[in-house]
Design brief:
The chain is 57% helix and 0% strand. The protein is mainly alpha-helical. The protein has a domain at 2-74. The relative contact order is 0.07.
Length: 109
């Protein structure tokens, strides 16, 4: 029956299912992770209309960048506005300064 299959599945993965009991830093569930990827999952249907596979890959890259900006505690609009202004004059050797985890807003003069 369905219940027997579910119990068998759980018993075969018992060590993984109870791992959080041995390490208090492990969460009981993965709700935080699922909430982070929800916008991507919801948008998946829209990507069918990106125009081409190449455009879809670009959209995925931009969405990944924006999510990284959010996870680093920055406002996506302020980040994109600042890096788009700085990119033309940013030395290639210092491009890594514009990555979300290293970015510092440029002081306005």
């Amino acid at each position: 029956s369905s219940i027997a299959k579910a119990l068998d599945y759980s018993l075969r993965r018992w060590a993984a299912l109870t791992r959080y009991l041995d390490d208090p830093q492990l969460p009981v569930d993965n709700n935080w992770c699922e909430n982070q990827i929800r916008p991507i999952a919801v948008s998946r249907g829209n990507w069918l209309f990106a125009g081409s596979a190449r455009a879809g890959k670009r959209s995925a890259a931009v969405m990944s960048l924006i999510q990284s900006v959010k996870l680093n505690g920055h406002d996506p609009y302020a980040y994109l506005k600042d890096i788009m202004t700085r990119l033309p004059t940013q030395p290639a050797s210092r491009l890594d300064e514009l990555l979300p985890h290293l970015w510092q807003p440029q002081l306005q003069q």
